[in-house]
Specification:
Blueprint (H helix, E strand, L loop, with lengths): L1 H19 L3 E3 L2 H25 L1 H6 L4 H14 L5 E3 L2 H22 L6
Antiparallel strand pairs: 1-2
Helix pairs in contact: 1-2, 1-5, 2-4, 4-5
């Protein structure tokens, strides 16, 4: 149940990003659900390998290169989903940053800790 709520929260965050960031287009809620799933899969499979390989660069840039990696992975997800598009590298960078922040915020609201 918690996984489903996180998925829905991620889709809602992606829809919000499409309204807030010019250049990020999501056709509808179904496209947002599929895109949120693909973003999660891309980050879980390719993301950790890329971050492992680029560890020295990330150390040299004090972690700022992670923003570039996230933007590329965000753009890569658009290649697999119809109805989800990013227009250019700046939109991908701002969109991935906004998506990460909004998804974390919404998931924090939805999936709060249980009372003991």
């Amino acid at each position: 149940m918690k996984l489903l709520l996180r998925w829905l929260a991620s889709a809602a965050a992606l829809l919000a990003v499409s309204y807030l960031v010019p250049g990020v287009v999501v056709a509808g809620f179904v496209a947002a659900l599929i895109a949120a799933l693909v973003i999660g899969l891309v980050n879980a499979t390719i993301g950790w390998v890329v971050k492992l390989i680029t560890t020295p660069i990330r150390w040299l840039t004090l972690g700022l290169f992670t923003l570039v990696i996230n933007a590329v992975l965000f753009w890569l997800a658009t290649q697999f989903v119809d109805g989800f598009d990013v227009d250019g590298p700046v939109a991908a960078l701002i969109g991935s940053l906004a998506y990460g922040l909004l998804a974390a915020f919404i998931q924090g609201l939805v999936g709060g800790k249980k009372k003991k």
